[in-house]
Amino acid sequence: MEEATLTGEEAGRPQRRDARENREALLAVAKRLFAEQGVEATSMAEIAREAGVGQGTLYRHFADKAAVCQGLIGEDLDAFQERVG
């Protein structure tokens, strides 16, 4: 069942541009909502709605809220590594 949580890129296929943009939008919305109301108070449905995508799109990128958090941590780690070289 773990395969279902992989995105196209993680599964060895390049992601389409719109898929990448959707993922970025989902993470940006999640980051804002988590900051405003906390992780526990934010639902996956709310993240999808605020990002302007269907819940199916959200779940194609992230299996659950923990996966969204991991995505945010990964973004921050990538940004940190770029800064420190």
From TrEMBL:
Q: Which organism is it from?
A: Kouleothrix aurantiaca
Stretches of Basic and acidic residues bias are at 10-20
What is the protein's name according to its record?
HTH tetR-type domain-containing protein
Example of a GO biological process term: negative regulation of DNA-templated transcription
| Any one Gene Ontology molecular-function term assigned to this protein's record | DNA-binding transcription factor activity
Region entry Disordered: which residue ranges? 1-20
What InterPro entries does the record tag this protein with? DNA-bd_HTH_TetR-type_CS, Homeodomain-like_sf, HTH-type_TetR-like_transc_reg, HTH_TetR
Q: Which residues bind DNA?
A: 43-62
The record's keywords, sorted A to Z, are:
DNA-binding, Transcription, Transcription regulation
Domain spans labelled HTH tetR-type: 20-80
Q: Where are the transmembrane segments?
A: none
Keyword Transmembrane helix on entry: no
Q: Name one Pfam family in it.
A: TetR_N
